[in-house]
């Protein structure tokens, strides 16, 4: 990552040197006006940084792709949770409301890091204070998850969740018309197909080998630089452009742990024969 940031920094340093030379030394004969390619280079650099920001966060490699299994009580959540894990981490019984808190376990499937999350059944009609806390925590988990497997009534899950028809082996089971997968954790029907799809979803969301990825602190600083580049590209006043480029350098220098004022002056005097 540092090599990539160094490259971005050098490009911004070069642009800053050109601009500062025009602003501060325009009475010197050998200092030309800004190159017509100045804006084009600025735009290309902004696009490249934007692509890096679109990459998954580095933390995903440590935390894994987070999959929450959600639905009302007794929908088969804990049974599916245990089946995907390959061992019994959650108590699964026919009694509704067995799971009253959030349970999460890391697992590696085909080498892909995944965090599976089981939770209390979601419903509004509870007078049990403990269960109510569990439901509140479960709802919070829905917003944290990268993917939600929805085992509840069709169309009532979070936006973007996968509709799962679970407990398909049971008499009278209602099969969703738009189910992405119809499964039975008890018999194993549909489980392999579901696991394969989960692995593919996780792989697409996680950084690929060799990709440039940013942790949260790096992402914050790169976002700051990206925003300043956009401001510089749209500004008309050279003084304002210079100030935005300075903000970009400050962000990159924070990433690399260095200062840049002297580097800009070195680039200016090294690029032009000012004062000689």
Spatial gap, N to C terminus: 39 Å
Spatial arrangement of strands, main beta sheet: 2-3-1-4-5-6
- Mean pLDDT score: 80
- Helix content, binned percent: 40-55%
User: Helical region count?
Assistant: 9
Give the number of domains: 2
The CATH architecture term of the largest domain is: 3-Layer(aba) Sandwich
Write down the CATH topology of the largest domain: Rossmann fold
Radius of gyration (Å): 27 Å
Low-confidence stretches: none
Net shape:
elongated
CATH class membership of the largest domain: Alpha Beta
Beta-strand fraction estimate: 5-15%
Describe the structure.
- The protein has helices at 2-24, 38-54, 59-63, 77-85, 129-144, 191-205, 216-234, 238-256, 261-271; strands at residues 65-70, 103-109, 112-118, 147-150, 162-165, 181-182.
- It is α/β, with parallel strands linked by helices.
- Helix 1 runs antiparallel to helix 2 (38-54), helix 1 packs antiparallel against helix 8 (238-256) and helix 2 (38-54) packs antiparallel against helix 7.
- The chain is built from 9 helices and 6 strands, in the order αααβαββαβββαααα.
- It folds into 2 domains: 2-57 and 211-271, tRNA modification GTPase MnmE domain 2 (Four Helix Bundle (Hemerythrin (Met), subunit A), Up-down Bundle); 60-205, 3-Layer(aba) Sandwich (Rossmann fold), CATH 3.40.50.
Question: Brief overview, please?
Answer:
Helices cover 49% and strands 11% of the residues.
What brief labels describe this structure?
Four Helix Bundle (Hemerythrin (Met), subunit A), 2 domains, Rossmann fold, six-stranded mixed sheet
């Amino acid at each position: 990552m540092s090599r990539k940031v160094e490259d971005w920094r050098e490009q911004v340093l070069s642009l800053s040197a050109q601009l500062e030379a025009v602003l501060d030394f325009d009475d010197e004969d050998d200092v030309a006006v800004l190159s017509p390619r100045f804006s084009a280079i600025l735009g290309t650099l902004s696009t490249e940084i934007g692509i890096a920001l679109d990459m998954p966060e580095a933390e995903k490699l440590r935390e894994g792709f987070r999959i929450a299994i959600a639905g009302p009580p007794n929908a088969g959540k804990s049974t599916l949770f245990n089946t995907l894990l390959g061992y019994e981490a959650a108590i699964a019984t026919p009694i509704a409301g067995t799971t009253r808190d959030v349970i999460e376990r890391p697992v590696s499937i085909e080498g892909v890091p995944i965090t599976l999350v089981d939770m209390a059944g979601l419903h509004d009609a509870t007078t049990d204070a403990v269960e109510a806390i569990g439901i509140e925590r479960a709802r919070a988990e829905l917003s944290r998850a990268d993917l939600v497997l929805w085992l509840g009534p069709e169309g009532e899950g979070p936006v973007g969740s996968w509709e799962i028809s679970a407990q398909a082996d049971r008499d009278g089971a209602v099969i969703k018309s738009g189910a992405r997968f119809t499964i039975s954790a008890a018999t194993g029907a549909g489980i392999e197909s579901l696991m394969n799809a989960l692995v593919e979803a996780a792989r697409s969301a996680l950084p690929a080998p060799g990709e440039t990825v940013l942790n949260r602190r790096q992402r914050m600083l790169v976002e700051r630089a990206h925003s300043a580049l956009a401001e510089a590209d749209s500004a008309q006043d050279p003084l304002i452009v210079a100030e935005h480029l300075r903000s970009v350098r400050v962000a990159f220098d924070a990433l690399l742990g260095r200062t840049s004022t002297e580097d800009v002056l070195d680039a200016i005097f090294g690029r032009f024969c000012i004062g000689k």
